[in-house]
């Protein structure tokens, strides 16, 4: 069987925050993607990782979204890549998803944004579940820009973060 190729772009966000014991804070200091991937059993799947930035999504700028777009445009090739997963902070994930949807003329592969409401390092984190779901979804979703989390795959435009429920839903305006 041929190995499925996925590229995982890390931008930071809650999913990758770690606890700084000296400062007593959670922060994006370095990527913990490899640690998360080691916990998953991924048959016939090769994941290439690209650490693009380490930012809380509330600090993301238009220039940061442009960098993400540039990376996606370079990787959007169904011959070399079966899907792109972007680890992103959930606060502005939908801003980036809508931006990518607007700017990408016609994606040829699934481009999936995912994150976590609680950091990977914390108990009851949804980080590993969401990462695993995004990896699985990259093999079955049609080309386009998606958010995958909590057992759902929602296509852009339309998804929003429902802060009360702590998940992503489709906007009633979509």
Describe this structure as you would to a colleague.
This protein has about 170 residues and is α/β, with parallel strands linked by helices. It has a single domain (about 5-170), classed as 3-Layer(aba) Sandwich (Rossmann fold). Helix content is about 25%, strand content about 30%. It contains 4 helices and 10 strands. The strands form 3 sheets. Strands 4-1-5-6-7-8 form a 6-stranded mixed beta sheet, with helices on both faces. The protein has a two-stranded antiparallel ribbon with strand order 2-3. A two-stranded antiparallel sheet has the order 9-10. A hairpin with a 4-residue loop joins β9 (about 160) and β10. The model has no long low-confidence stretch (mean pLDDT about 90).
Question: What keyword list fits this structure?
Answer:
174 residues; alpha/beta; Rossmann fold; two-stranded antiparallel ribbon; 4 helices
What name is given to the CATH topology?
Rossmann fold
Give the CATH H-level superfamily: L-asparaginase, N-terminal domain
- Report the biggest beta sheet as strand number plus sense, adding barrel if it closes: 6 strands, mixed
Compute the CA-based radius of gyration. Answer: 15 Å
Number of helices: 4
Unreliable residue stretches: none
Q: Would you summarize the structure shown here?
A:
By secondary structure, this protein is of the alpha/beta class. The chain has a single domain (4-170), classed as Rossmann fold (3-Layer(aba) Sandwich).
């Amino acid at each position: 069987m041929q190995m499925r190729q996925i590229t995982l772009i890390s931008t930071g966000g809650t999913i990758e925050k770690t606890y700084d014991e000296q400062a007593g804070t959670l922060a994006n200091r370095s990527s913990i993607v490899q640690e998360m991937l080691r916990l998953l059993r991924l048959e016939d799947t090769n994941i290439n990782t690209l650490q693009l930035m380490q930012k809380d999504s509330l600090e993301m700028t238009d220039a940061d979204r442009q960098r993400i777009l540039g990376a996606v445009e370079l990787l959007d090739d169904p011959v070399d890549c079966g899907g792109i997963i972007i680890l992103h902070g959930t606060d502005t994930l939908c801003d980036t998803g809508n931006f990518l949807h607007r700017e990408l003329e016609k994606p040829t592969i699934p481009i999936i944004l995912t994150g976590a409401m609680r950091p990977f390092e914390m108990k009851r984190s949804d980080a590993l579940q969401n990462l695993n779901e995004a990896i699985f979804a990259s093999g079955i979703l049609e080309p386009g820009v998606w958010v995958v989390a909590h057992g759902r795959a929602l296509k852009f435009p339309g998804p929003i973060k429902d802060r009360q429920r702590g998940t992503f839903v489709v906007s009633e305006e979509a």
